[in-house]
Amino acid sequence: MEGSQHYGLKRTPKFLEYLFPQLLWGDRSMTSRKLYLTFDDGPHPTLTPSICTILMKHQIPATFFVRGDRIRKYNSLFKDFDYNLFQLGYHGLSHTPWWFKSRPELQLEMFPTNDFLNLLDHNPLTPPPPMLLRPPYGRFGVNALSQVAKSDARLVLWRLVLGDWLPGHTTNSLQNLLLEHVRGGDIIVLHDGGINGKLLPSLLQSVIPILEDRGFSFENLDDLLMDSTQ
């Protein structure tokens, strides 16, 4: 693997959570053993279904933050999507940062296309959860926060990102990073649409039992949203 043993690893600084408490970063409980799996940049025609199959086998919930420019091409992947186990979030239309943009530009980038909304229409859960939005690269500005505040939506960030989209990683390097640095309450970001997405099925197959043996449980972001409003 290129560089240091922590190549690409990032934990969100605590001060950001204090600066932006209206964003969802992770479980606020100091004693939490809950983890929240999320996947960005998909859908991918083969990797997203493979990941879903492994998660369903272990009954692990997850949220997929999909790109608007990929939904039209691959929306058939969600025909049999298990909405009781998985959630869909929106990761922007063209994967460009949500800062230094005008309000009309942000409206186009941030809020979902009809293709995405049609997928949500198949969600059997009543009432539907708030729209989950994740800014590309985690970059947002004042205008983006203003747009979200006026809508029925929540911005979802993270506490742990492994850098799994970077070249040079292996399944073992990602496993070592995750097992060494994960903390209770983390929202974890992986990338089913990244260049290393092919590593994720074997990564999940190996780390899920280890994390469960360590006393962690995997939860749905809905539960976290409910806790954050209480």
Q: What does the main sheet amount to?
A: 7 strands, mixed
* Shape estimate: globular
How many helices does DSSP assign?
A: 9
Q: Assign a percent range to the helix content.
A: 25-40%
Which architecture does the CATH hierarchy give at level 2? Alpha-Beta Barrel
N- and C-termini, Cα separation: 43 Å
For this structure, the CATH topology is TIM Barrel
Number of domains: 1
Q: Any idea what the CATH superfamily is called?
A: Glycoside hydrolase/deacetylase
By helix and strand content, what is the structural category? alpha/beta
Poorly predicted residue ranges:
none
Question: SSE string, helix = H, strand = E?
Answer: EHEHEHEHHEHEEHEHEH
Instruction: Please give the CATH class.
Output: Alpha Beta
Number of extended strands: 9
Radius of gyration: 17 Å
Q: Average pLDDT, to the nearest integer?
A: 89
Content of β-strand: 15-25%
Task: Please characterize this protein's 3D structure.
- With about 230 residues, the protein is α/β, with parallel strands linked by helices.
- The chain has one domain: TIM Barrel, CATH 3.20.20.
- It contains nine helices and nine strands.
- It has helices at about 15-20, 45-60, 70-75, 105-110, 115-120, 140-150, 170-180, 200-215, 220-230; strands at about 10, 35-40, 60-65, 85-90, 130-135, 155, 160, 185-190, 215-220.
- Strand 5, helix 6 (about 140-150) and strand 6 form a beta-alpha-beta unit.
- Helix 2 runs parallel beside helix 8 and helix 7 (about 170-180) runs parallel beside helix 8.
